[in-house]
């Protein structure tokens, strides 16, 4: 089965202030050097690179000791929300090159606004070691990259970065796969709001194929737009070491590619984040190359086309 040709726009988000350590701001450059654009062009897609988001810290936002670097993260959130919305509204597929995971506060919010315009729900596939459902009140670190899911679901009060009446994502429409590190208060919030969590034990017991079939069937039944947010630490550190938040026991190389291949086969994905790549911690570009390879699988690269099963 040949993947549908897409019109893709890359947008870089050199954001590291949400993570509490330096290096993730180099992620967009590393992904470009690793050839993310060329991989997509070689697969027959139309690719435009919008460059990196340029921001000025949002001085209207207060300093918050429980949400570090709020002014910078807030400025990125606003710029990415607007940029992603405009790309999607122009009929193109946004790929956001990160940057730490706080960037998803903007990217998912932009897609939520676009989905609302289309009168369709937005579903999110969160491929990550962490649930990122903390709030400023529950976060043990105050690092905002642990808060984006709570934010775009309307549960993290972050000083009106975006309007309070913005379109939100229903927590029950968030599917988290590969989770293996959750703070205790965060666990209670996830349970309370009905986020769908498939931790590594679920993958061990059920397999990623069964999990993905279940998720994709729900997305299709809802006629939803589908945003995929891929954190490097979803993968086992042996596969992709270039991340500042490594957690042992992550997804294997083949499990990750199977997810991307199934997403490609479904034709349901509307937008993609590639986040938390820290080239300073990488092994000679290994993690950047893995992310590019996974992106290529999502956009149709395969060894051979499997025959279509008869109806």
Summarize the structure.
With 311 residues, this protein is α/β, with parallel strands linked by helices.
Mean pLDDT over the residues: 95
Oligomer: single chain
Q: Helix share of residues?
A: 25-40%
What is the CA–CA distance across the termini? 15 Å
Q: Helix segment count?
A: 10
- Strand proportion, as a percent range, falls in 15-25%
Order of helices and strands: EHHEHEHEHEHEHHEHEH
Structure description:
36% of the residues lie in helices and 16% in strands. It contains 10 helices and 8 strands. The protein has helices spanning 27-33, 36-42, 70-89, 104-117, 148-152, 184-193, 200-206, 208-222, 253-266, 286-298; strands at 7-13, 46-52, 93-98, 122-127, 174-179, 196-199, 225-231, 269-275. It has an 8-stranded parallel beta sheet with strand order 2-1-3-8-7-4-5-6, sandwiched between helices. Helix 3 packs parallel to helix 4, helix 7 (200-206) crosses helix 8 and helix 9 (253-266) runs parallel beside helix 10. It is globular. The chain starts with 6 loop residues before the first strand and ends in a 13-residue tail after the last helix. The mean pLDDT is 95.
